[in-house]
Amino acid sequence: MNKDTNQFMAQINAYRMDGLGNNFIIIDRRLDNFELDKIKITNLSNKKAIPFDQLITIEKNDGKEYPIRIFNSDGIEVSACGNGVRCIAYLISQEKKEKRIKIKTNERVLFAEIVGEKNVKINMGKPKFSWNEIPLIQKMNTQEIIIDFLEKDYGLGFCVNVGNPHIIYFVDECTSIDIKELGSRVENYKFFPERINVTFAQVLDKKNIKVNVWERGAGLTKACGTAACATAVAASKKGLVGENSIIHFKDGNLQIDYKDEIFMTGPVSDIKKN
């Protein structure tokens, strides 16, 4: 860690955590007014001294809901991060000695429960399927999205919003796809005014799905909680799995239960104080 990064981190009350290899810097802003902006976040990301996919701040609260803000490594604020919320819930549960925590994003309130030593279950709420809720640039069938350079090899995409926008393609072999080449092109495609998260999913059987994920603003990622939720919802809607499925990432799995609302359960790491 270089001198500038050391000085920056010394100014803030910060933690490092991860969920299945999805890395986070968590900054507690409840006790100070330390200001963050896009330049500070991108500078920290570019130095790579502390690699992270998202930077999350815990904001001042005056009740039982804990407000957070979520920033991708490109400095852009986003509305959801499932693995990050699980980490925040665990951190606050350790502080408050409570099993149930309410986390407030700028899009919805999420209900978390500690269900094991380091296992956290989140009620992610209801998915959204309308074109203007995802959002798309114009009205179209959100379950049959045609992207010109993908249609021939990968068919049609399925779009859903689970707090943030996702497109999912179901393929025979997800890990053989060069997502570094395709991910950014899809993320920034003309249909998506707020960009989009991209998943290539491989259904293993009626309960298990393997995924390869490109996260908007962060790029190739080892894990993404909202991508797991979106994939499970899309697979269920298409009749590929039932109401309960396991989403397989490189370094572990997430359990997704979906009927009307989405429940996501999985492990978090130790809390590392900077």
Describe what this molecule looks like in 3D.
The chain is α+β, with helices and mostly antiparallel strands. The chain has two domains: 129 residues, Diaminopimelate Epimerase, Chain A, domain 1 (Roll), CATH 3.10.310.10; 120 residues, Diaminopimelate Epimerase, Chain A, domain 1 (Roll), CATH 3.10.310.10. It is 23% helix and 35% strand. It has six helices and 17 strands. The protein has a 17-stranded mixed beta sheet that branches. Strand 12 and strand 13 form a beta hairpin. It is globular. It starts with a helix and ends with a strand.
Brief descriptors of the model:
Diaminopimelate Epimerase, Chain A, domain 1; 17-stranded mixed beta sheet; 2 domains; globular; alpha+beta; 274 residues
Strand content range:
25-35%
Task: List the uncertain runs.
Answer: none
Mean pLDDT: 92
Q: What proportion of the residues is helical, as a percent range?
A: 10-25%
Largest sheet: 17 strands, mixed
- What is the CA-based Rg, rounded? 18 Å
| CATH domain fold name of the largest domain | Diaminopimelate Epimerase, Chain A, domain 1
Number of helices: 6
Coarse structural class: alpha+beta
Shape: globular
- In CATH terms, what is the architecture of the largest domain? Roll
**SSE string, helix = H, strand = E?**
HEEHEEEHEEEHEEHEEEHEEEE
Number of domains: 2
Reading off the top of the CATH hierarchy, the class of the largest domain is best stated as Alpha Beta
- Please give the number of β-strands: 17
- How far apart lie the N and C ends? 12 Å
CATH superfamily of the largest domain: Diaminopimelate Epimerase, Chain A, domain 1
